[in-house]
Amino acid sequence: MVVLIALIRAIPAVYSFFFPELTNPETERLAINKLSWMKSDKEAAHRQQKMEAPVLKSTLFNFDPNLIDADDWQRLGLSAKQAGVMARYKGKGGRYFKKEDLQKMYVISPEMYERLIPYISIGLGKDRQRQQLNPEYTAKNYPAQQKPLSIPLNTADTLQLMEVRGIGPAFARRICNYRQRLGGFYKKEQLLEIYGLDSLKYAEIKDQLSLDDLVLTTINLNTALFDDLKNHPYLKYKQINAIIQFRKQHGNYGNIADLRKVAILSAETIEKLAPYISF
User: Fold this and answer.
1) Rounded Cα distance, 147 and 163, in Å
2) pTM above 0.70?
3) Using CB atoms within 10 A as the burial measure, which of 19, 48, 71, 279 is most buried?
4) CATH classification of the domain holding 240
5) For 109-137, what is each residue's pLDDT tens digit?
6) What are phi and psi of 152, to 5 degrees?
7) 92 falls within a domain
């Protein structure tokens, strides 16, 4: 009997050992809520930290994207790398003709474009642009321009050519280099022979250019050597050799008609070359 009573009293302890009591539901709920609050607090702290993270300082001002440089783009909020892209585009002759053109630049995000658009002023003018960038700059008082822009094609330097709407540094250099090789332009349409200058670009710039009375540089075919002719864009090396050999075999050229006897020269080539040769 004593043994039986001892076994009955031991049953709860044994049961508890093999079958532990389940967690109190209320205690479990409170623990879950505490974990949830801790997670929420952590996320809130992360958001606050992100909001308080330092951002690139920018200064917004009225600007013409055709005139500003890399430093100015950085002042507007672009990174050094993005500003470099904008500067290289300008350096290669890239131009903006309306505000929307800025959207074509992949380094200008939609958000950045929306920030900048109220300040974009195409054709702002160099003096006004300089005043925006440097308040101490005093604009020069030029007399009002009465006539439309007319830049002399045969005597203008690169800076003068860049005053033409549609001509940037790259095209200005190409025009001057090609003019040097030719000996001068005798018609505006010769600009179409310049690399990268297509009919659309020509239509944009032609009315802003004029043909001055500069005398074209000519080459005397009766005394010219190979080196005198090799850089002319209208002649290839084989044609130059043919011109010189024909002269050696038949004597000096007297006129254009004699040049037509050189079989390798087409009528089109002779017509283009005529203003640049003498006898």
Assistant:
1) 14
2) no
3) 279
4) 1.10.150
5) 888 888 888 888 887 555 554 555 555 55
6) -70, 120
7) yes
